Amino acid sequence: MLTAQPIRSAHFLGICGTAMAAVAALLKQRGLRVTGSDENVYPPMSTFLAEQGITALSPYAATNLDTVGQPDLIVVGNVIRRGNPEVEAVLERRLCYASLPDVIREFLIRGRASIVVTGTHGKTTTTSLLAWTFQHAGLTPGYMIGGIPLNLGQGCACPPEARHFIIEGDEYDTAFFDKRSKFVHYLPDTVIINNIEFDHADIFPSIADIKLTFRRLINIVPRNGLVLANGDDPNVREVIANAPCPVKTFGLGPNNDSRATDLQLEASGSHFRVLNLKFQIPLLGQHNVRNALAVAAASLHHGISPQGIQAAFTEFRGIKRRQEIRGEVAGITVVDDFGHHPTAIRETIRAFRVRFPSRRLWAVFEPRSNTTRRCVFQKELAAALAEADGCFVSKVNRLEELAECERLSPETLVADITARGRPAHYLNDADAIVAALVPELRPNDVVAIFSNGAFGGIHDKLLQTLQAK
Questions:
Q1: Which of 64, 35, 65, 66 is nearest to 52 (CA)?
Q2: Please, where are the H alpha helices in 201-305?
Q3: How much is the average pLDDT of 234-251?
Q4: What pTM value is reported for the model?
């Protein structure tokens, strides 16, 4: 456990993070006295915390620890760095502190069968579909998801009767005092590895370092556990070689244990056959077929029938910000997607080609993630975005934090897209993009907006401008 003493109260540093707030609420529901602090406390998280009866203080200050009464446990969020006045007080006073993954392990996972969904892409969709499949089958799982599945209505739950805990396993580091990947904390019984590519350029120097952290995860899967791995991915195949636990592969290639055949990719969804079983999902693209394959394999392993799996697939409604239609005005459809890696952007655009056949497709991209703000994918981003019929790129988020030699060049990006025969434009912000994009749009167009942030409220601004026009 985290401490030999009983934990009756907890204080969260960075409580307005989505996962932090969700776990804080669960601990409050279990009877702990829960408080927190953050740099900025505002809706919707301030409203959520208030509804849960949780006090959230702002800004950070050492005196916050005295205001709430010295807690038994300080939960330190991933965003907290040395120099934060509260964390400095915690260290100076020798208070008991832990990372959020530590808390998730001890309070939510321990004693349950842990199913950890990992990979560079597809984690949120796969975890959401898996949790919904278990829920639909009556297994009442606990889960932690980095998004809001529309079927479940929330990203985190842990009912007392849960025998399984399904968690989106992030390879990002844990805390300022623990640079291991988050997923190594989650006591894995079953691990899904969707794919492995270079990402998180701010903490991983190379793809070799990312492979190493996945090997560390596999090394703690017990002999009575299981790794379900994408056998089509060469990086995944390399990582699972000589695994000390059982491994089964899934994918489209002939050498996989669970192979999808007879693929039909249609505007209404995807059909495929695996192990002489037919499945249909209301999701688009080959990448989502692989996600569904992983879910089917994990569900069968845990005793859910093929009929139960398909029944859950049929009713799956998706996740907010994953190919989510935000609105339609005058025949122009605006779609929101969390894509922030060139592979994810490319596959999503290809899925939109199936979903919206014969319609002109515009891509609007904000370079915001710690990887796409850098030049590591300068050429790959151009190739991915050029799969749309036209493209708008905004300024690089937090550009001043990067050395000039590390920065993505949006000017070069749009020049490369233009050289591929697609119109492309670089503009500073959401307002400028909307002003330039709206005159270009005509009925039947689709606008796909790619960002892992709010992007200046561009979705609503675009829809409002179209409505006014």
A1: 35
A2: 207-218, 234-240, 286-301
A3: 96
A4: 0.83
Phi and psi torsions of 170, nearest 5° = -85, 135
Pairing of the two strands 247-251 and 258-259: parallel
Q: In this structure, which CATH number among 3.40.640.10, 3.40.50.1360, 2.60.130.10, 3.40.50.720 belongs to the domain 9-102?
A: 3.40.50.720
**CB of 95 closer than 8 Å to CB of 116:** no
What is the helix (H) or strand (E) element at residue 449, kind and residue range? Answer: strand 446-450
**Contact criterion met (CB below 8 Å) for 120 and 197:** yes
Q: How far apart are CA 207 and CA 438, in angstroms?
A: 40
Strands 361-365 and 390-393, sheet pairing: parallel
- pLDDT (tens digit, 9 = 90+) per residue, 89-131? 999 999 999 999 999 999 999 999 999 999 998 888 899 999 9
The burial of 359, by beta-carbon neighbours within 10 Å (0-12 exposed, 13-18 middle, 19 or more buried), is given as middle
CB within 8 Å of 366: residues ≥ 6 apart: 393, 394, 397, 450, 451, 453, 455
Write down the H helix ranges in 249-305.
286-301
Fold of 111-315: UDP-N-acetylmuramoyl-L-alanine:D-glutamate ligase (3.40.1190)
> Is 90 exceeded by the pLDDT of residue 339?
no
User: In the structure encoding, which two tokens stand for residue 358, read together?
Assistant: 């014969």
CATH number of the 324-468 domain: 3.90.190.20
Instruction: Give the sign of the dihedral formed by CA 16, CA 20, CA 24, CA 26.
Output: positive
**Does 13 have pLDDT greater than 70?**
yes
User: Which of 352, 351, 424 has its CA nearest to residue 381?
Assistant: 424
Q: Which helix (H) or strand (E) holds 333?
A: strand 332-337
